[in-house]
Amino acid sequence: MSDGALKIDIDGAVATLTMNRPDKRNAMNDQLLAELDSFFANPPKDVRVAILVGSGGHYCAGLDLSEHQARDAEGTLQHSRGWQAVMDRIQLSGLPVVSALFGAVIGGGLELTTATHVRIAEPDCIFQLPEGRRGIFVGGGATVRVGRILGADRMIEMMLTGRKYGTDDAVALGLAHYAVGADEALPMARKIAAQIAGNAPLANYMMIQAIGRIDDMSRADGLFTESLCAALAQTSPDALEGLAAFLEKRPPTFR
Questions:
Q1: Which pLDDT value is given to residue 244?
Q2: 1, 27, 126, 131: least surrounded by Cβ within 10 Å?
Q3: pTM (whole model) above 0.85
Q4: Residue whose C-alpha is closest to residue 117's, from 174, 42, 43
Q5: Catalytic residue numbers, as ranges
Q6: Mean confidence (pLDDT) of the chain
Q7: Can you say how many angstroms the Cα of residue 31 is from the centroid of all Cα atoms in its chain?
Q8: Is the pLDDT reported for residue 3 higher than 70?
Q9: What Rg value do the Cα atoms of the chain yield, rounded?
C-alpha cells in the first residue's frame, strides 16, 4: 500500500518501507516524517522486521529545503524535538529495522539511518552532514547518534568541512555495517531481515531496548540491567524452545 510519501509492502513477517519522493532524492518533509511515525507507532501485529529503503537511486538527501518553513526559535525547537521523537520511535519501537543504502545518505538521511539497527551500503553511497555549509545545525538527533558512532572530534570535523564519506570509510567508521555491490543492498536486507524475523521476539526486543540504554548508564547500572534482561529472556517460553531445538538439532519455532 502507499500513502504517497511512503510505500509499505508486507511479505510475511517483513515490511518493506520505501521512501517515495524520487524527484527530491527522498528528502524529508513533514508528510514523510508523519508517515514513518504512523507506521512505527502502530506496526502491523504480524510484522517482526522492517526494511527502510529509498527510491530513484537515493536513500534520503536530508531535509527538503524547498519546503522549509521559516520559524522563530520556539518553532524551530519544537520542530527539532518532533523530528527527534520520530527517530526515537524508529529506534525504540521494538521492531528491528534494516536500512538498504544507496546514493545520498545526507543530513537528515544520515540521522534517519543511524536510528535503524542494520545498515547495508552500496558502492555509490555518500554520507555527509552539510548543515554547517548551509548556515544551519543538525536537529534530528545527529549529535547523539552519529556523534556516538564517530566520536565528537570526528563529527566536528565532518560538519566543519562538509566532508563526504564513501561506503568503505563509512563501514570502517561504523556509519554502515555492510558494504555490498551495486543493486545488492535490498536483496541482502531481505535476507538479513528474514534471519532476524526468525529470532525470538523477546530477545529482539531486549536487544533494541536495552543495549542503547545500557550504553548511557554507569558500569554498575549497566551490568545490573543486563542481568535483568537475561533473567527475563532466559526464563521465557522461547528460551525453552531454543534450548530444545539445539538439543534436538532442529531449527527453533518461536512464538
A1: 87
A2: 1
A3: yes
A4: 174
A5: 111, 131
A6: 94
A7: 18
A8: no
A9: 19
CA dist., res. 221 & res. 159, Å (int): 33
143 with 155: CB under 8 angstroms?
yes
Helix H, strand E, coil C: the string for the chain is CECCCEEEEEECCEEEEEECCHHHCCCECHHHHHHHHHHHHCCCCCCCEEEEECCCCCCECCECHHHCCCCCHHHHHHHHHHHHHHHHHHHHCCCCEEEEECCEEECHHHHHHCCCCEEEECCCCEEECCHHHHCCCCCCCHHHHHHHHHCHHHHHHHHHHCCEECHHHHHHHCCCCEECCCCCHHHHHHHHHHHHHCCCHHHHHHHHHHHHHHHHCCHHHHHHHHHHHHHHHHCCHHHHHHHHHHHCCCCCCCC
Total residue count of the chain as it appears in this document: 255
Residue 1 has pLDDT above 70, yes or no: no
**Is residue 86 over pLDDT 70?**
yes
Report the half-sphere exposure of 208 (CA within 13 A, side-chain side): 25
Closest to 52 (Cα-Cα) out of 8, 103, 84, 5: 8
pLDDT at residue 100 is higher than 90: yes
